[in-house]
Design goal:
- Helices cover about 35% and strands about 10% of the residues.
- The longest helix is centred in the middle third of the chain and has 16 residues.
- It has a single domain, classed as Rossmann fold (3-Layer(aba) Sandwich), CATH 3.40.50.
- The protein is globular, with a radius of gyration of 17 Å.
- The structure holds iron/sulfur cluster.
- The site of iron/sulfur cluster (SF4) has 13 residues, from α7.
Length: about 240
């Protein structure tokens, strides 16, 4: 195990300089084995491109905790896909994170909060369950890439995330890189990709991308919202999410 410096942004910058250029799978192995052994998780939506990182995890650490936000609003196809992929890849530590029963009763008793206040719904069903769960870890992997949206275009591989370190092994990958990886390893894609979905989240808030838009343009269509809130500044450490 390496002596990982504190989690200030300058320390995270040092990690980025030392390890940020590693190949994605090597980086995952290094982070799991040397940087944050037993203290790191992968957060996965089992969405359109998730299979690439899940496959790497299965090769370097099949017992890596994989945190899945079970919002209660997923497509049936996503839940079925998740079951198949976990079994196929031999992932042994997939953990569902659900919103609290008390929160649902108080804030979304009829399940329609997403239509009235999407930010509040994401806070209830995604942000708060995730950040409660992350209290048990020092670092987490995400599948975010710079080519996905303008707001992600300058993202580092290692990011400071409150008390934790966020690692984006695919930050420099393009959609072509992901497609090639999936093809090379003969991996099963989310079935809705075939149906034209470029980014897949909760069913009420996911559509096919707009003409000329990026892959995530089908998320929260008609709203200015582009992120669920788990990657926005201000969300770590239980602070109020910015969206
Ligand atoms: S994506 Fe939509 S349904 Fe899912 S948590 Fe956010 S607002 Fe709610």
């Amino acid at each position: 195990m390496l002596d990982v410096p504190g989690r200030t942004s300058s320390a995270v910058g040092a990690l980025d300089r030392l390890f940020g250029a590693m190949a994605a799978e090597d980086l995952m192995a290094t982070a799991c084995r040397d940087l944050f052994p037993g203290r790191i998780a992968l957060v996965s939506s089992f969405g359109a491109d998730s299979i690439a990182l899940l496959h790497m995890a299965s090769r370097v650490a099949p017992d890596l905790p994989v945190l899945f936000l079970e919002t209660g609003k997923h497509f049936a196809q996503t839940l079925a896909y998740r079951e198949r992929i976990v079994a196929k890849l031999g992932l042994t530590n997939v953990i569902d994170l659900a919103p609290s029963a008390e929160g649902l009763a108080a804030e979304d008793p009829d399940g329609t909060l997403h239509a009235r206040d999407a930010d509040a719904c994401c806070s209830l069903r995604k942000v708060r369950p995730l950040y409660d769960a992350l209290k048990g870890y020092d670092a987490w992997f995400t599948g975010r890439r710079r080519d996905q949206t303008f707001s992600r275009s300058r993202m580092a591989v290692f990011e400071a995330d409150g008390e934790r370190t966020k690692i984006n092994p695919l930050a420099g990958w393009t959609q072509d890189d992901v497609d090639l990886y999936i093809w090379r390893h003969e991996l099963e894609r989310h079935p809705l990709v075939e149906a034209g979905y470029g980014s897949i989240g909760c069913e009420p808030c996911t559509s096919r991308p707009v003409a000329g838009g990026d892959a995530r343009s089908g998320r929260w269509q008609g709203l200015s919202k582009t992120e669920c809130g788990i990657h926005l500044p201000g969300t770590p450490n239980g602070a109020t999410p910015a969206s």
